[in-house]
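Quick one, tokens below. Sequence please?
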């Protein structure tokens, strides 16, 4: 690692194979905390390359405890985090709304590192027991249309760097990797990124992969999801476009309307209020818009308007709430 760090400090880049091997060594706990922190810091100071990101991703996927959901047409709805916006748990709520429409969701997530509450914090607060047992996860998919894949249960490398990431409390390249390494390899992906450069990297990496559908979202004002506070960039295999809230028949909202509170308990109260169908108009429209886009990624013949109505039926018909209840009761 010392040699690698010296090279990186001299502005060298890693090859795909070098990046892969370093992550394999990190997972094997061959490096100390100081070296890990230094290594992660490099990629906060300069952009990660496509080869580096691909190499890191290949290592994590190779080492992961895998689960086979090939019998299901699943989607993962996940953002990088690290956008510094402190929103409520939009992607997690979106996942339950999508599951409430009958669509199977294999949600990959982790504890928060750089915000108040990540998806794992939220699920754990509701009593969900993390597992990597494929049979249990399949039962969750069958009975609740959703299962949750807590990253440290599946990724030894993420577990190995967990304490260092927590101590840094900053976004690192592991934020960028998370959405790309769902151990169930879902057929559909809705990915949010905290900057445009990462969105383009994702698009570059995913566009050559066969048999998957994806949509990558980056809000122009920095959110890693559709925030309705501004327009957003939307990348698919068919190209990229800028979409504004007005294009979707939505009103622009203010950042303060989608804040997530100052603690996990604050975030859980907001989550519960929204899934109970009692959210504010701004909160509801944000999660419904994200859910509608997820449904159109799965089926690109579906119009946004049709998908939005399906999402509304799930939220206000309390199907999303029933899904949460089923999942946490199993």
């Amino acid at each position: 690692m010392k040699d690698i760090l010296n090279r990186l400090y001299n502005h060298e880049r890693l090859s795909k194979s070098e990046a892969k091997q370093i992550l394999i060594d990190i997972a094997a706990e061959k490096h100390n905390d100081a070296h890990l922190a230094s290594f992660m810091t490099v990629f906060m100071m300069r952009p990660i390359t496509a080869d580096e990101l691909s190499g890191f991703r290949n290592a994590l996927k190779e080492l992961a405890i895998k689960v086979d959901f090939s019998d299901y047409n699943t989607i993962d709805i996940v953002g990088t985090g690290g956008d510094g916006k402190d929103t409520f748990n939009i992607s997690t709520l979106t996942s339950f709304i999508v599951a409430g429409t009958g669509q199977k969701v294999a949600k990959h997530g982790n504890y928060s590192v750089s915000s108040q509450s990540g998806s794992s914090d939220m699920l754990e607060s509701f009593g969900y027991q993390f597992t990597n047992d494929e049979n249990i996860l399949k039962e969750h998919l069958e009975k609740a249309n959703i299962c949750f894949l807590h990253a440290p249960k599946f990724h030894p490398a993420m577990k190995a760097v967990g304490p260092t990431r927590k101590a840094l409390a900053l976004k690192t390249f592991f934020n960028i990797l998370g959405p790309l390494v769902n151990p169930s390899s879902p057929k559909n992906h809705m990915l949010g990124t905290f900057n445009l450069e990462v969105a383009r990297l994702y698009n570059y990496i995913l566009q050559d992969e066969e048999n998957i559908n994806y949509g990558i979202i980056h809000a122009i004002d920095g959110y890693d999801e559709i925030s309705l506070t501004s327009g957003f960039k939307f990348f698919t295999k068919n190209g990229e476009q800028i979409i504004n809230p007005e294009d979707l028949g939505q009103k622009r909202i203010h950042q303060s309307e989608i804040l997530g509170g100052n603690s996990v308990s604050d975030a859980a109260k907001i989550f519960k209020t929204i899934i109970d169908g009692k959210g504010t108009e701004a909160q509801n429209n944000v999660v419904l818009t994200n859910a509608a886009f997820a449904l159109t990624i799965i089926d690109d013949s579906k119009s946004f308007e049709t998908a939005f109505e399906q999402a509304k039926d799930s939220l206000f018909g309390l199907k999303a709430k029933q899904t949460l209840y089923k999942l946490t009761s199993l």
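The longest helix spans residues 281-298. The first strand starts at residue 75 and ends at 79.
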